[in-house]
Amino acid sequence: MSIRSPKRALDAAVEAGRWAPSVHNTQPWSFAVTGEEISLRADTSRKLPVSDAAGRELLISCGAALFTMSTAMRCEGYEPAVRILPDPDRPGLVATIRPGEELEADELTRVLGGEIERRRTHRAGFADVPLPDRLIESLARGAMREGAKLTPIRAPAAVHVLAALTQAAQGVQAQDERFSLELIRWSRPPGSTRTDGVPAEAYPREPVPTEPDFPQRRYSWRHGWGTRAEPAEVSTGVVAVVTTRGDGREEWIAAGQALQRVLLHASAHGVSAAFHTQALELDLLREFLRQELCSGEYPQMVMRLGVTFDSKDVPRRPLTDILE
């Protein structure tokens, strides 16, 4: 093992944090290092005021960054000492993290750490490759360790209901120009040098429907950017929902940590995720989903898991933009 150093652990955690997933790749966070402590802050200037007025998706994104930073710190030989929402007078302070006791990272932690920069979000169908039940069960156990629940939706009727809710939400949002304008704010044209948002190479111009169809965000709205979808990738994959018992800020952060654990573990097995949060952005549909499909728990993320042979680079903001 390499020589331990608190500074090295802090540097690794900050570098890793910027690779976390976020809604529309908004990367709504900033970091500040004071002594041997990192402050993870929510960047509310990057919040989606129409689709995420409460900041739920923003905090899920920050929770994903927190898990990423903790994993990097463990890989550097330290158990992270984390405080969630440590100061009620500073609501933008999501968490603080510092190197705690020394440890030897276990094999799974190192595997997760190795996927931080390799993990990618997918925005189309998947190849017709089945996922092992044992892998899905392992992903569910990992989510529970972070205080959330990952439930694969196995019943075909339930999958169709969830697809229909996604279609309904997409239809409603498509009729609301506010949603559409907010979405294309984060759509990047071909050749863009921006380091945030979704580049044209990372979304399809005209998605190929899956069966049942889980519609994609229309990042190509009104401009026709994007790539041609792979016709071989039309499988829905495994549909899953991340839920929590409560629905406050702590639960949203926990959902983000659980989500990133799932994504990194899945990535290590060649599995990617496609996200569908449209129905969760409309209160009536989210409540229906909670009561009818989630056993009363609060849905925080809807995703499809599957195998894709399409891997696109996604931009990340440089440290100079996010490190205070």
UniProtKB/TrEMBL annotation:
GO terms for molecular function: oxidoreductase activity. SUPFAM superfamilies: FMN-dependent nitroreductase-like. InterPro entries: Nitroreductase-like, Nitroreductase/BluB. Residues 190-215 are annotated as: Disordered. NCBIfam families: Rv3131_FMN_oxido. This is Nitroreductase family protein. It comes from Nonomuraea jiangxiensis. The lineage of its organism: Bacteria, Bacillati, Actinomycetota, Actinomycetes, Streptosporangiales.
